[in-house]
Amino acid sequence: MSAMHPARYWHAIEDGRIQCDLCPRYCKLHEGQRGACFVRMREHEGMVLTTYGRSSGFCIDPIEKKPLNHFHPGSSVFSFGTAGCNLACKFCQNWDISKSKDMDRLMESASPDEIARTAARHGCKSIAFTYNDPVIFAEYAIDAAKAAHAMGLKTVAVTAGYITELARGDFFEHMDAANVDLKGFTDEFYVRLCGARLQPVLDTLVWLVHHTDVWIEITTLLIPGQNDSDEELTALSRWVKNHLGPTVPLHFTAFHPDFKMSDIPATPRATLTRARAIALGEGLKHVYTGNIHDREGGTTRCAACGEALVVRDWYEIIDYRLDPNGHCPQCGTPLAGRFSQYKGAFGAHRVPVSIHRIS
Fold it and tell me: What is the pTM of this model?
């Protein structure tokens, strides 16, 4: 399969260049130039996506790894990504994929239909577009999502939410759930460490929660001394409650030294516990800690009576007490999220998959 595929979301501008309208970077390109994401390129009078049909690998994961704690808990998700990214995070935890400019890293080719068939064959509940941001391979992700829905599978986007108003309707129309990285809560943090701006991400979150049926959870990677002050955590938590609602799940996850921030220490457990306490104190009902063993920080509780409904340690489900409709067995209150018949947890392991291997 050719990786070159006609791209959408661009227009010609007066100086002879074309402007990419997919993300708020609005890259302006001469012939042969690539955008900041590296995978969208001007070719003649149009734009192509250079990674369509090519992946950096396929794995089956627990849905909790995305992380999604309120979207069919315990189910397995077929995960894949491509290469490149439209942000420039100095702390990227998947930098070898997202920052790659080496197309040889894309070891497997796969059509959208092949992806959906393989996911269904392995008994997965959903397909996740992850590892690098699916916004930059929107055309491929949308076609794979359509194929997934045709097979009765759900779809998940793991994204930074850095997408324009023009493109977001098309992209998220085909997603059932998304985990959005809210990387910090100051524009200074976004500019200095991500090469981006905060407001477009907030705009995406508000639009997703109030104008779509996509199930949303938020993740903030806490980096010591960068985005973990009481003031910033309070402001972030308050904004989520006031603009998105108290039942939107918020995950605080631990940073480990990587990429261009290898001199920063790993996030202490106490920082995650403090962040969770702040968010709960601001009125959020479902706040989690991640990348550490913390049973209380991984437990989903009823927003009404406090009953432990799903007990987790990291990605492992220890106890599951929701009824099939996602209601608390103690008081009958529905839990915010998307739920189905629980058939036991997939577990914390991940399983690499070759898409062309007959199983």
Answer: 0.94
Extract the tokens encoding 274. Answer: 């403090």
State which H helix or E strand residue 108 sits in: strand 108-109
Residue 334: is the preceding peptide bond cis (ω within 30°)? no
- The pair phi, psi for residue 334, each rounded to 5°, is -70, 140
Output b/e per residue, 162-186; b: 16+ Cβ within 10 A. bbbeebbeebbebbbbbbbbbbbbb
Tokens 């103690």 correspond to what residue?
Answer: 330
Pairwise CA distance, residues 301 & 312, whole Å: 11
Residue with tokens 């396929």: 58
Domain boundaries, the chain: 5-49, 54-353
Residue 1: predicted pLDDT: 46
Convert the pLDDT of each residue in 60-93 to its tens digit.
Answer: 999 999 999 999 999 999 999 998 899 988 887 6
Alpha-carbon 213 to chain mean position = 16
CATH class of 54-353: alpha beta
State how far the alpha carbon of 8 is from the alpha carbons of 180, 213, 240, in Å.
23, 24, 32
